[in-house]
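I am still getting used to backbone structure tokens and would like to learn alongside you. To get us started, please write out a protein record for me. Start from the sequence, derive the backbone structure tokens from it, and show both lines together. Once you have written the record down, we can walk along the chain together:
***
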Amino acid sequence: MASIVLVTGANGFIGSHTTLLLESLGHKVIPVDAVPRSADLSLLGIRTPSHLIDVTDAGAFRELCAKERPTHIFHAAHPSRNEDPSVLNFCYHAMTNILEAAKALKMRRVVYSSSASIYGQLKKPDHSLVKEEDAVTIYPTYFYRAAKTVSEWMGDFYKEKHGVSFVALRYSSVYGPGLYRSIPLELKKSILGQPCRPFLTRSLDDLIYVDDVVDAICRTLFSDKPLSRAYNIGLDKAYTNEDLTRAIRKALPDLKFEIGQHPNAAEVGPHRNRDPLDISRAKAELGWTPKIYLDEGIARLTKWLRENKAKLQL
């Protein structure tokens, strides 16, 4: 039976790809965002028009939910990644409005777009994979990580106290068509004839293609089984700069490029210094497994960029 899924941050990267898959599966989608969809993401061909409201506006959000009566929420809204306390303020109010609506309407599930950044600098002595319940160090920097942690805590609270079915998905480094940073942005530059300096966000990066991520999101939204509070969603291997170089040369053999560095490497680097994720829980409980590895992911991204070259914008 088709469901009614409200997607916050629906005009962003993961929100847009999730909306597209939900449409293709026949579900009614209520896309919500505070800003319009970018020119590149608009090329995905999403049919459902977005409601341009701020999810932190309690009155407007409550009115929309009362009208549309969503059965599920996928919450991907997040402010700009400024290292500013306003990030915490946004996430607190957004999550409060979402969880209150879910409680009032007895929604079937709320799935939160979290991040593996919450693990911080988790490096195990034996370098084993990072599990969902591993203890992490609390430290006073990096508001993005703190905001994800606070949002998960609120969801867990409403799950325990009010019976809201809340699940957090913690992604590793997600890439794919329409992402306006990192590898996709740099390869777009190359397609448009500009210098290209792709980079990994970590020295050993478990990159995951967006199609695998949205598959996990949909499985989590509609699973009729009892689910755990959180799942790691990443690749079951990690890549180096040499792996990235090989994949790009395979997809674009004539491209002249050099491997670059994260533009804020000194600022964000220490917070990304963790071991790869253990995804066994998602495999066992969601029936999910990643299917798109780096060579195929770069090939798919390159194909999309070539097909849309005339419409791409920098």
